[in-house]
Amino acid sequence: MNEPTGNPDKITSLWAQAEADRAELARLKTGVRRRMLLAVRLGVVDIERACSMLSAWGLPQLPRRWAVSCELLAVARCWQTGADRAIKHIRDIAPEQWQQAAGPDDSVHTVWPLEARFDPAAIADNDIRAYVVTARLGACVWVSAESRQAAVTQARARLVQIQHDLTEMTIDASVLERIEADEERTRPQPLRPPRDAPHRPPMPSLPPPLRLADAIRAQRRARRELAEFVRDIRARVIAALSDAEVHGRGHRDPHDLVDWFMVSSGLAGLPRSQQFAVTATVAMTIEATSAEQARSLSVQMLADSWPHYPQPGLPITFSDHRSVAEVAAGQGGFQVVWRVTYLVCQRAHRSAALAKEAVRLQLDTAALRAADVSLEVAELGLRPDRRLDPYQD
Questions:
Q1: What's the mean pLDDT in 273-296?
Q2: Potential cystine with 235: which of 15, 116, 269, 390 (Cβ 3.0-4.6 Å)?
Q3: Percent of the chain with pLDDT over 70
Q4: Which domains, and CATH codes, for the chain?
């Protein structure tokens, strides 16, 4: 049913909601980029993954050093005894001249001589003549930029500066036969939040609509854009965590760091779960000809019961604690004892008994006798869940 065109109070209210959602979206974008920069500085996320996620969210990437390749014409004037020597002259001086004018990281990697023209206006001295040599240079300059296009723009500005600083040859930076930035040839650079983090999306001041239908559409669009941005952030960050592309720092687990990233950016943190470390001591008798063979066979027998491969429905993941405690010759073969720690995450319950039962079910895959397994439980408390789904969490 169409509302009247009027109703200014409702139009004002809907427009205020739309403006609030737009402001919240801008605030989130600013905060997310700043914290992504901090994560890169701390070594929690590689800059390539960080830039990939920022780009997917429609945010400027973080500054990197880009190698920009270009081809341009260079002209040198020299006094030589022949055209061959004049060509050799420009081959010799071009790389050195370029580095002196540009910098130690920049280079001329190719010189294609095109012409060595005798200048009849110059006065010759015996066999020495003046030559004007033209060559095409294949060069590279390194620039700091947030994107490929920005790198090309920065490189053009650098070339103008190089043009002014060359002394023994000239170039025309406004005429380039080719210029491109290579995504595969980037380098990290030191990042500083005051300089590199600020990103404030434009917030143009728009007048409120005159029609109620327009106000409703604006409010719904702003709410949808905010929800989609939040959902995509969570999905991509959790996917990076699941793919082991988020690294711990010191004693802090990657899950805790991602939770900090979410909360400090103004988003809901990761789902919590009650967590238990259940250490299983598994004793096995293995028929083998050596201790090494016994150990290898025991690994094969327990392969499906390791915490890395939880059975469907079991809230189990792995910790870093797995060791063979003992391999000793005994009656009937070798006695092999493993100590394996399972991390059990319970979102809906807090039960050490259920945690132990989950591990026993996991160990059933190895067809072990109950007497061969002893379990110790340590409660770790309520922490960010270690078992996450990018599409649901």
A1: 87
A2: 390
A3: 89
A4: 1-59+193-270 (no CATH), 64-187 (3.30.70), 272-384 (3.30.70.1120)
